[in-house]
Design brief:
2 copies of one chain form a homodimer. Chain A is built from 8 helices and 10 strands. The first copy, chain A, is α+β, with helices and mostly antiparallel strands. The first copy, chain A, folds into 2 domains: 150 residues, 60s Ribosomal Protein L30, Chain: A, CATH 3.30.1330.130; 35 residues, Wheat Germ Agglutinin (Isolectin 2), domain 1 (2-Layer Sandwich), CATH 3.30.60. In chain A, the strands form 3 sheets. Chain A has a 5-stranded mixed sheet. The first copy, chain A, has a two-stranded antiparallel ribbon with strand order 1-2. Chain A has a two-stranded antiparallel ribbon with strand order 8-9. In chain A, a hairpin with a 2-residue loop joins strand 1 and strand 2. The radius of gyration of chain A is 20 Å and the shape is globular. Chains A and B meet through helix 4, strand 6, strand 7, strand 9 and strand 10 of A and helix 4, strand 6, strand 7, strand 9 and strand 10 of B.
């Protein structure tokens, strides 16, 4: 990537630093996370610095890590919710007023960046779109393949509450009584077999 | 916290560094994450250094961030799955053999640390268990309030696959066709109202 591109600022840091931060957290540089950095950057700018923001991400793939790297919102602190809807979109909103901005990959706009369009729509084999090409394409596109809309969040904004918990008579671990008289694992829905 | 306690090693770093890493990522020091560090540490030790591990966490609260801070697994890279089961337990397992270890807060053992037991079971008001007391309790407890079991993972281990996507005739965004002829948002299940 040219000096000029790697010096572009996004989410308060250079693209070069962005790439390093993505690799450190995510384990590898994914083009979707570079795109995600530009999405977060735009949403943050629209929302303003002085707003305490929560996040909703509309896919499980990649994008949640852009929120976790570039904002204070994480999965575990509950400030980021993730919907398994497979849409390349995220929203940042004021947790008090519930108003904010949704930013998404706008496919119509993305058509002017064929590498980006073909990558996202899986129209080209991966080997034809190596990482370096994709990063350069995404950084060049900057916000030009994105759109945003002002929104008011109507659901999924409530903090996760712990319900009533008791000790499961099966395993002796604490579990939410809403699951029944035993925990889900003791009801046979567990994800593991015990080994010797 | 005493010098001796803050120097204890967990997840390859001192407790002091652990606390700093938790605050940097999670936004604040949560006792559950300190406990989580000891859980991850034990699971990693059991599994061994040379194993490429995936993670399953059994609650949305706090604990997913322990995995994200102390292992290479994140929500967005798909190496960590999170179940909304409200159990304070996590598993690390070899992604090839699917065998690994589940580590959990063992309430019977936790009874010998009343602050820990009362905190987890919400039997004491928060003001009676300030952060400093909780961190000291958790570090003192180390692995003595935890148990582990060797497991073979039987579900939730498959990598998340993207299904077939097309362009939604409603909004023009890409969406998984498994959702129907329009995306969920265009079907009225969205989480936002557009603002002027």
């Amino acid at each position: 990537m040219s000096m000029e591109l790697s010096d572009i600022q996004v989410c308060g840091r250079s693209v070069k630093k962005c790439l390093a931060d993505i690799e450190a957290f995510h384990g590898f540089t994914a083009p979707g996370l570079v795109l995600g950095a530009f999405m977060v950057d735009w949403a943050q700018e629209l929302l303003g610095d002085d707003v305490e923001a929560d996040a909703i991400v509309e896919t499980h793939h990649c994008l949640p890590d852009a929120i976790q790297i570039f904002t204070p919102c994480t999965f575990g602190n509950g400030w980021m919710k993730v919907l398994d809807w497979d849409k390349f979109a995220l929203s940042l909103y004021d947790k008090k007023t519930l108003t904010g901005y949704r930013v998404w990959l706008d496919l119509e706009k993305a058509r002017q960046f064929p590498n980006l369009y073909n990558w996202y729509m899986r129209l080209a084999p991966k080997k034809d779109l190596p990482l370096e090409v994709m990063v350069e394409t995404v950084v060049n596109a900057n916000r030009d393949a994105l759109s945003y809309g002002p929104i008011r969040v109507t659901q999924f904004h409530a903090p996760l509450k712990k319900g009533n918990t008791e000790i499961c008579p099966g395993c002796g671990e604490a579990y939410p009584t809403a699951q029944g008289t035993q925990c889900l694992t003791c009801q046979g829905q567990g994800y593991y077999e015990l080994q010797q």
